[in-house]
Each structure stands twice: as C-alpha cells, then as structure tokens.
Here is the input.
Amino acid sequence: QVQLVESGGGLVQPGGSLRLSCAASGSISSVYTMGWYRQAPGNQRELVASVTSGGSTNYADSVKGRFTISRDNAKNTVYLQMNSLKPEDTAIYYCNANIVQTGSTFRRSYWGQGAQVTVSS
Here is the structure.
C-alpha cells in the first residue's frame, strides 16, 4: 500500500505565497519523478511542475519564475513553493509520484487527495 498525503492549501490574496507539501508513505522501494498538477473548474488537469529523482525540474510556462518545486528524497516528500500568486492560479492541486512498491518491479503512478488553493482578495 502506498499513500500520498498533501498539505498546505488555503486562501491567499493576490501576490501572496503558499507552500504545498506531499509525502509518500507505505511499502516503497523507489520513488521516481514527482510532480504537481492542478485542475480548475471546467478545465482539464494540467501539469504545474515536476522533479526527477536526480533533481531535474520542469515547469509550466504559466508558473515559471513564480513557483519552485523541490523534493526531499530521504522523506519521499515533494514541495511546491508558490509566490506572486494570481487569481488564475486558483485550482485544486494534486501531487503525483511514480513509485515502485517493495517486492515489485513495476512503476505505478499515484495521486494525492488534492489541496484547494484559492487566490482572491
């Protein structure tokens, strides 16, 4: 069993900051790419940022220069620091991780439960 548990969402004013965290737990052998996606009402889920186990990062154009993704491999945790937030960043944010469970050779994709981020004055 593998779980991803997110924390850190909330309500913030435009220009403000929030930090999301996502910890993977359970019978884990290896954790590969971890990332954050978001889904606003009426929109498809989209990639926000991702980070490989080696630390290489990728960002959506809409968040470059404002968001920073990082991870702590010892804790199987990924973070998303969000600065200069805009109303259009309002969405449910989901973490994702590609994980090999203990005793398995297959890599599977797991999702967190989602964290609401609302940017409004």
Notes: The chain has no helices and eleven strands.
